[in-house]
Each structure stands twice: as C-alpha cells, then as structure tokens.
Request: fold
Amino acid sequence: MFCWVAAAHCAAPPKAKPAQSAAGEADDYKLMKIFVDTFDEIERNYVKEVDRRKLIEAAIRGMLSELDPYSDYIGPDELSYFNQQVEQEFGGIGIQVQLHPKTRRLMVMTPLPGTPAYKAGVRAGDIIMEIEGESTEGMSLSDAVKRLKGKPGEKVTIGVLHEGAKDIEQITIVRDVIHVPTVLGDKYNPDGSWNFWVDPERKIAYVRLTHFGRHSAEELRRVLKDLLAAGMRALILDLRFNPGGLLSQAVKIADLFISEGTIVSTHGRNSPKRVWRARKDGTLPNFPMAVLVNRFSASASEIVSACLQDHNRAVIIGERTWGKGSVQNIIELEGGRSALKLTTAGYLRPSGKNIHRFKNAEPSDDWGVKPDEGYEIRLSSEELRKLVDYRRKRDVLSEHGPPETEFVDRQLQKALECIVNLLEGRQEAKKKAPPPSRRSTSKPSGEASAKLPLQSSPGSSPGSKPQPEQPQQPSKAKGSKRSPPPSQKAGKSPMSSTKPRARWPQ
Reply:
C-alpha cells in the first residue's frame, strides 16, 4: 500500500539555510569524505563488479529511511508509474490485468470502456498468451505492463486466448492516451457507463473514489451534478482502500460539501502555518451523506473524512483510518529523470486535532479518523478478503452483469440504514413544519443550503475556489451539532463496496 499526500511545489518558499560556521563546514566535509571513501573502497575491492548507480540510489534510500516511512527516492523506472497515478493518464491499450492465480499467465480483469482494447474485442477473462510474438509464460506483471504501454499511435499485437476457446487470436491494437477514472460507481451498466444507484427507489447514490489524482475533484463534481439532476436525495461516498493523492484535490473535494470554515491546515519547519478554507461558491446542496472509511483509508482520504466529520456534514462509518498526517513534496532530480519525495509538512484537521499516527502511538491517542459513535463496523481479515473479491467481480464489464453472491457488505449496509434514517427524519420534520407565511421575504443567500428540499437541484459549477491563507489559527468547525441517528432496519438494497489493487498495463 502506498500512502501519500503530494504537493507539486513547497507551500511557501523555503527559508534560506543558516550560514554555517567554519567548524560546521569542516564537519560536513569529514562526513562526506567518509561516504566517498566507503564508495571508493566498495568499487575497487568488492569481490564482484558493482553498479555505481545502484549503490548511489541505495545510499539515498538509506538516508531517507532514517527520516520517516513516507519520504522516498523515486528512480527513473518508478517515476513514470508514479506520474501516471497522479496525472491519471498514460499511453496504452486500456486494460486492467493481473496474473492468473493458477497458470500465472497474464489475465485481463476488464477492458476500460471506449479504449482501443475494448473496441478491438478484448474481454474480461481473456488470457494474453503473447505480446509481439513473445510468450508471456514466466513474464512478470511489471514487465508485461511495460510492453503493453507505449506511445499513442504505435501498434502492439497480442495473442489472446478467449474464455472457452482453443485457438489463440492475434489482435493488433493501436495505442492511445488512456484516461484512468478515479470516480467509480457500484457496477457497470450494459453500455459501459457506471451505475451509481445503490438504492434506486429512494434515490440514494453510491460513489467510490479510488485515489486523489489530478482530475478527481472535477470528475466527482461532474458525477454528482448529473446525479442531482437525476433526483439524487442522499450520497454514500466510499473512501475505503483509498491511499491518498494530491493535497489540492482533497481540498477541492472537501470544499464541494461545506460552504465555510477550515478544511485543513498545514505546518512545516521551513514554511509558515497555512490554512485552507471553504468558500460558498460551488457548494453542493446539503443532502444527507455518509462516508465509508477503513484501516486502509489514508492521507488525502483522512483530510476529506476529518473535515466532513468536524463540520457535521457527514456520518463517518466503518473502521478507524490509517493515520497519515504528513505532506510530501515532489522534488525533481536529474532534470526530471528521478525525484525525491520528501516530507515537508504535517497537517491538522479543522478541530485542530492530530491525524498522524506517530511511532509508538497508543489506540487512546489522537490519530486517524474514527467512525462516529455507533457506526464502527470492523471487518475480519477473511471478511476483508471477501469484500475485495466481491468488489473486483462487480468492477468487471460484462454483458451479463456481476455474478450473484451471498456476500453482504456490512459497512455499506450500515451506511444505507443511516441514510434511510436521515431521509425519514427529514420527511417527518417537513410534515411537522408550520405552513409558510403568506408574506414572503427573500432569504439571504447564506441560508439557501441549510433547508433544502429532499430532491435537490444541481449545484453550480465551482471555479478555482480553495485557496491557502496565511498563518492563522484554524477556526472551530461550524454547523449545528447532529448526533447520528440510531440504527434501524432498512429495506433490502443492492450491496456494493470497495476497490481491489490492480495494475493498469499499457
């Protein structure tokens, strides 16, 4: 699992390094001489020939390992994959693959709708026997992924064994720019679009966010706008297994749901304290909302869930989160050929409480995001495995739809019960409310989102709303205190859940 909140640049210009005394410079020289002498001895006298670059990279990683678990060196081979995760695009054919558990051959989990592989007839369950005439037997997943990826416009020929077939079909595919979505629904519709309704009758939507990439906030805003136009009355946002991503996207996503107050604050050794605050423009309607988290929700996921919890905007359901409250700055090395991922700041939730789980932290300490009282649903390791397998099968694009299963996602079930209670509570309050006065007076714009009808219209499109502010104490989260409703049995609804870890090949 990789946990990260990345910032492209430092939040503020770093302070100038204090001038060193002559004695300090001499000490630095002595330390560097130890390193150079050691490197020289290894290169000249080690029993075998050594790779100079590998030694230097290992030394860099060794230095960073002394700092914290999240600072790291990103080598040239890894930087491309890291950037693809952030930018959500790469050159390839558009399939998600894994190694077959028995044969260890390359198996297609699902093609992405609309991609070259999808159009060429590659299907879920296909076994890729050859890539450009070379057998995939014994080929590692990372090696196969490299061969499938390439420049848009270039061709690649794969030998595919369809499920139930005896002969290998050779398929030539022209690579294209593949856009990897981070906002997913419960299952695919027959036309390749996502089905976001977990309870179609009550108009309860279910949206998963896999990680916080460059376009995640805009993706989510667009999906929610469409769902509101279709009559969405409530939302379940699934952040389980979400390892984090870009700080800027976490801020923008939190800002979709609150209209004022602190979203997150950061503090670092060489930068002033900074506070990100919500703005009213572009805030979505105040529909009932639940957020699912688990022990693998980290970093940017914790920024969003902590913000919504502190502002009483959503009920947090599931398990206590990972506990990563630090920001890594991506610093280019070698002119962009490699990079340094360095922890430069920590962050605090709107209430001012800590999120980071420090070494030797106790369960009673403040770290991570805890579910609201009465909404902690812990899963055993076996249940967690079944959940991942269940979600993997629902993420397959198939003309027959996902297979029937007896598995029940208990965390999602609890979220549905919570949302139904909230909707019923609003309906009762609406019935008991006195009739409106005949003398109508226009409301101030600030009150508009506080008393919305159950079936809301789409929110306006946000512009570049969230902006960091200069150091100031985070304001106390605003909003009326709301206790989560007691659980009640809700009517049966389709259960869905989580996201498997997979590799995007081309």
About this structure: The two ends are 21 Å apart (CA to CA).
